[in-house]
From TrEMBL:
PANTHER family in UniProt: PTS-DEPENDENT DIHYDROXYACETONE KINASE OPERON REGULATORY PROTEIN-RELATED (PTHR32071:SF117), TRANSCRIPTIONAL REGULATORY PROTEIN (PTHR32071)
Keyword DNA-binding: yes
InterPro entries assigned to the protein according to its UniProt record, in alphabetical order: AAA+_ATPase (IPR003593), AAA_lid_NorR (IPR058031), GAF (IPR003018), GAF-like_dom_sf (IPR029016), Homeodomain-like_sf (IPR009057), HTH_Fis (IPR002197), P-loop_NTPase (IPR027417), Sigma_54_int (IPR002078)
Pfam families, alphabetized: AAA_lid_14, GAF, HTH_8, Sigma54_activat
UniProt-recorded name of the protein: Fis family transcriptional regulator
Assigned keywords, A-Z: ATP-binding, DNA-binding, Nucleotide-binding, Transcription, Transcription regulation
Amino acid sequence: MSEKSSAATSTSNQDESLLLYLNEAIATTRDKESLFKIVTEKLRLIFPFDTIVIVTLDPEGRYRRLFFRDYLTVSGLTPKHSSNKPTLVAGTATEYFLRNPEVHTIAIQDVLNRYPDSPFSLMVDQGIHYITIAPMRTGGTQVGLLCLASRKHPHFGEADVTLLEKISSLVAVAVSNTIAFEEIARREREKTIQLAVNNALLTIKEREQLFQRVASEINRVVPYDYFGVRIQRRGGTREAFVELRKQPGSTTFEPLDPNRWNDVPDYHQMEAEAFELFLKPALYAGEQFADLAQHYRLFDQIRRNYGTYSILTAPLWVRDDQAAVLILSSQQDSNFTEEDLELIMGLVPQITLALKNLFAFEQIESLRAQLERERTYLIDEINTTANFGEFVGNSPALQPALTRLTQVAPTDTTVLITGETGTGKELAARALHNLSPRKERALIKLNCAALPAQLIESELFGHEKGAFTGAVDRRIGKFELADGGTIFLDEVGELPLDLQAKLLRVLQEKEFERIGGRRVIKTDARVIAATNRVLEDEVAAGRFRADLYYRLNVFPIRLPALRERPEDIEPLIRFFLERLTKKLAKPVRGLRERDLRAMQQYSWPGNIRELEHVLEQAVIVSTGPFLEFAGFSAAAAQASPPVPLPDNTPIKTLRDQERDHILAALKRTGGRVSGPNGAAVLLDINAKTLEARMKKLGIRRTVGVE
């Protein structure tokens, strides 16, 4: 073998050994820095270069990313020039390099002539004038460029070019593998944080505790000092939803004082000026943050007060009526990267969900608190008004009923309240419940006359799902709901006979079954029944069971009709007028003596309920200083008992008396109806009401009468 052949063989063996070594390094090394330290050291043994740069391309070849750079020589490159952020290939030196698909060497000055703003001028300042470009391909696709820069022009032979092509192919595989492993690691990191944030969402409902956990979890992979969520509402008002800062030397985040900016003049104006910067995903660090601090007073303030030098912003939502943004800040000027921003944006949906859930939980809590306040108010209202205090009056006819209510209220005795409609039977039932030991439990009411007969049984005892057509769900009956409390059966005389038997069983055995059910349900409910019928007559007519009547009529209480207690009408009027004027937001008006007398003489077939309705109508329609009871006086007079007259005295009808009275008033006023000197003033009645009465009574207006 010749000496030349032996040297070639030795060189070939060295090349094969290098390729094998690089292949093993690529297969076993996952760390980018370690891998390319090995690649750089081995390449320097064969090829003359001073620095190495590796650029990767996206699958479409539109964007490039600086994947690796050897800083041992080119120390003048700043972080701004070595950013790992993807940039467009079009219009850059990378586009120029890609035009030649082979290994080739270019003078850097030629690059600068075409692209004067490129960072290659820094290489020239370092004395580096040439760059060798080796395309990196894997699977037939170009994935990047391997660039070897040197001070002197390299002289590569054909074997060197072939070796460099093989090495660039191995490096291409290394780059692809490393990118894949980095992507896997990034996704694992994302999933870890997402899982931690999701666990926080599921377990914590309190605002500060939730975001303290979220801030701590994110801080494990993205170091920062401040975590804040700010909201801008319609009209430009802004507020801090949550603000946390990491304590020095600690990993825990604590709430910030919301009033810390109160002493800073124009703080809200400063925030308004800068808030637009927070409405888009961005990071501001280093020179960019310093530049913002010169143009925005808010950035200058946070730099001065907290030593902040970098900010990351991620909008959670931006709508016409509201915007919410997440803001992270750090005291390091290069603490955030594009990968950090991408990671945070990946968490935005979860943080948004957390924020909306908190809004919902806090609204529910607010409504719950409001409901609790209203419930407390209603209980107090019932306790103070729904007792004997609403039994207005002190007439001899009412006193026996009040005495019996007082006697039976503390017991569990069944009570039967009788009386005409509108006498206050439900009021008496509520008073009995509120004065009993069962007042802490519910008073369950059922109007037996308000439901069809086929539905009353279901209301009383409940039913199982599928018990009858339309029974799509189980229903709890009134007796079951009233367990431990009181059940009030209003208009019990309206119950059908078949249900009377079932009600009798409940009263006797204290048990019942749901419709369609087989389980016997025990109940401990006190029964209060009410009726406006005379049950003795109903029993005699066969419409009401005698045994049920005697079970209900354990302790009867009769409420007197209003006509039996005329002396209570005036205090009742005062009571209702006070309540109605407040309820209807109407001014307080006077009550004429004649109207009061008419009401006291009226028979009130509808009792207290009718009185309340008459007063409510008067409060609504009245416009003058006194209450107007349009048409009531005549109706009351017609319905009232006649005034005794001497024997053999002719009696006029009420219509004739009213007609004569109006004619006398018109005669005295010269036929004038309205105005200060009209008959309406004389009769103390509204002019339009008087005209209506005249028309009804057939009194015609003569010429000159207004």
